[in-house]
């Protein structure tokens, strides 16, 4: 049975029967005009939990492109899904939010039909949300080093190094995860120092190597096939990729924290890609 992974942002049109019509009537106030896109997204996600209707007005009701494959396109695609959400069950805690040009990306601890950790990406045009991508994974227990999928550093620094950090991380993913140039691995890290939030891998670069080696012995290989998007703000960089983990065709969202030109910390969410015959929109995962 194919499992439909729902993003909490699926319910951007929560209370669709009333909120959709209200969104058309909401005019831009001075407060809204001055609000950063990042703030709009955080407010919108929190509204999933609170039921506030005003944040729905941050979405362009005439153009909303959905890339969650379990949801039909546009605001109207939310209705049937909303009906099955138990009242007062949703919880939303956005731990990290970032802005890169017209894109906002977030790292959120959800309870939406069960506990999940998710990354969401929103694209803006003229101050309104017009497109959405996401990746979700059921919340796992802390990893062997005691780190959860969501804890760790949150402070955004080194804004002047954003582009350099994006290039560093893109090169790392391309060299190591796509092309398997393991001889370059050590050059991306400060010795063995590396904080890991993947639920199955311990800290340190040596911990990563040991885990991948053990999986390889079991015939389980991690292979990224293509990088689709790289977004960043300061010392944080998100890479969106697709590839395979074992036999599964997956979407990989990897968030890296860079410190002094080296990768220092990593979070990820891995989601199996729904077979095309079960897609509810034709926009694709990426």
Automatic annotation (TrEMBL):
Pfam families: SnoaL_2. One of its GO terms (biological process) is polyketide metabolic process. Residues 169-266 form the SnoaL-like domain. InterPro entries: Cyclase_SnoaL-like, NTF2-like_dom_sf, SnoaL-like. This is Putative SnoaL-like aldol condensation-catalyzing enzyme. It comes from Flavobacterium aquicola.
């Amino acid at each position: 049975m194919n499992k439909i992974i729902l993003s909490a942002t699926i319910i951007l049109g929560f209370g669709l029967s009333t909120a959709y019509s209200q969104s058309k009537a909401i005019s831009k106030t001075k407060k809204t005009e001055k609000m950063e896109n990042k703030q709009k997204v955080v407010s919108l996600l929190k509204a999933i939990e609170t039921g506030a209707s005003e944040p729905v007005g941050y979405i362009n009701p005439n153009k909303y492109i959905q890339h969650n494959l379990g949801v039909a396109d546009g605001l109207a695609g939310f209705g049937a899904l909303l009906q099955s959400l138990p009242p007062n069950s949703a919880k939303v805690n956005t731990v990290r939010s970032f802005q890169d040009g017209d894109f906002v990306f977030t790292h959120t601890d959800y309870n939406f039909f069960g506990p999940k950790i998710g990354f969401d990406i929103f694209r803006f045009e003229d101050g309104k949300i017009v497109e959405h991508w996401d990746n979700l994974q059921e919340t796992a227990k802390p990893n062997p080093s005691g780190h959860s999928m969501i804890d760790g550093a949150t402070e955004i620094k080194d804004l002047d190094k954003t582009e350099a950090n994006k290039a560093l991380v893109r090169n790392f993913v391309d060299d190591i995860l796509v092309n398997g140039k393991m001889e370059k691995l050590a050059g991306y890290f400060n010795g063995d120092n590396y904080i890991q939030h993947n639920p199955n891998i311990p800290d340190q670069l040596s911990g990563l190597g040991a885990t991948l080696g053990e999986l390889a012995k079991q015939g389980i290989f991690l292979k990224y096939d293509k990088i689709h998007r790289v977004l960043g703000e300061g010392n944080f960089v998100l890479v969106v990729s697709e590839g395979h983990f074992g036999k599964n065709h997956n979407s990989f969202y990897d968030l890296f924290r860079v410190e002094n030109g080296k990768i220092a910390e990593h979070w990820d969410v891995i989601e199996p890609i729904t077979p095309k015959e079960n897609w509810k929109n034709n926009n694709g995962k990426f």
